[in-house]
Design goal:
single chain; three-stranded antiparallel beta sheet; 4 helices
């Protein structure tokens, strides 16, 4: 495996977390989410990645959706929101992520800034 393949695997494992974090901030529609992810080149993702992930998160009960009319005369947009079940899942994911970062930083011999774990 080369470094680009490894980076792809790393991204796949964290994209779900990042999408839930972004939607938790406020209800978001798909294209807006893709545009926001583009601001973070490491996490940028295409429609063929994001929309299937959104559908799966909805099927699993972590997201809900609602259609909203545009004020600019555009077609209605499907906005996604994190459900209570999704918030519980996100909390568990965040805890696991923080523990992973703490462990990796410890193995690297670095101080662990950003987590409360000691």
């Amino acid at each position: 495996m080369n470094i680009d393949d490894w980076k792809t695997q790393l991204k796949r494992g964290t994209l779900e977390l990042c999408i839930l974090l972004l939607i938790r901030r406020r209800p978001t529609y798909g294209y807006e989410l893709i545009s926001t992810l583009e601001q973070y080149p490491l996490m940028a993702a295409k429609e063929n990645t994001v929309y299937p992930l959104l559908r799966r998160l909805m099927k699993e009960g972590y997201l809900s959706s609602s259609w909203q009319e545009s004020t600019e005369g555009l077609p209605p947009r499907k906005y996604y929101s994190v459900t209570d079940r999704g918030l519980e899942y996100l909390e568990a994911m965040t805890e696991a992520w923080d523990n992973l970062l703490h462990t990796v930083n410890e193995m690297k011999g670095e101080k662990d800034y950003g987590t409360d774990a000691e």
